[in-house]
Amino acid sequence: MPRDNKSPLIQKIAKQACISYRGLTSSADLADTQSELISLVTAVRAADLKIAPPKSKPSSGAAGLQNPPVNYMHICETEVFSMGVFLLRAGASIPLHDHPDMNGMLKVLYGKVRVRCFDKLEDNLTVSSVPPHFDPPLAPLQTASLWRSTLRSVAEYSENSGPCLLTPLRDNLHQIDAVDGPAAFLDILAPPYNPDDGRDCHYYKILQTVAHREMDGKRNEAQQGEEKETEEETWLLEVPQPDDFWCGGEPYPGPVVSI
């Protein structure tokens, strides 16, 4: 098949996402079909979408508090995948959240983000399970929303980085923080969020156990100057969407994408 050199890069990405994610039944299938999509997404830059970092300083005081910390530019959505751009103000975070039975990737367009990836290790607690002691303590009813998990990785991404990937079983939960100023990233999810199909977005809070708190002091003394440990077991509490996080909308200024 002749290579399409005339279409905008974002159109090629959308077309390849359809090919890569349609009819996907396993992670093995994804590994076979995702390499071309990763190559295309790695090449995309803010200029390809006619997006640029904000020139003005963020509003301060009451006016700044009324502006959403994060905005979203919708590009396209089908039953197979959704694609858009998240714009994070300086200091903004997208709280820890999940992607039930979904694959995805994010590619930074400008700025820098820190991504902390987690995975659940098992279903939430059964009646016979005994959770550890938390600091501060949990209310009895909250134990039904507890999840044992592992911190898979903590990494920073810039426009020169490749995409950050997630699958239903690996790196499925993440928190995204803007680092040293505003940031923007292209976001692809397959299939899209859809509460009617069991794919709603859930938010989580990282808990500290009493034992972990006591170990932290000793660990900090012994590991000063070393990198953050990964594959670290932790506990998450499912919570409502945080009050200080909401997402606004901005029009997408880039090339029109047709699917």
Describe this structure in words.
Mean pLDDT is 86; it is low at 218-227. Strand 1 and strand 2 (82-88) form a beta hairpin. The protein is α+β, with helices and mostly antiparallel strands and 259 residues long. The radius of gyration is 20 Å and the shape is globular. The protein has a six-stranded mixed sheet, covered by helices on one side. It has five helices and twelve strands.
Topology overview:
Blueprint: H1 9-21, H2 27-33, H3 35-43, H4 61-66, E1 70-77, E2 82-88, E3 93-97, E4 103-110, E5 112-120, E6 146-158, E7 164-166, E8 173-178, E9 183-190, E10 203-207, H5 210-222, E11 232-239, E12 247-249
Parallel strand pairs: 1-12
Antiparallel strand pairs: 1-2, 2-9, 3-8, 4-7, 4-9, 5-6, 5-8, 6-11, 10-11
Helix pairs in contact: 1-3
Gist of the model:
This protein has 259 residues and is α+β, with helices and mostly antiparallel strands. The chain is built from 5 helices and 12 strands.
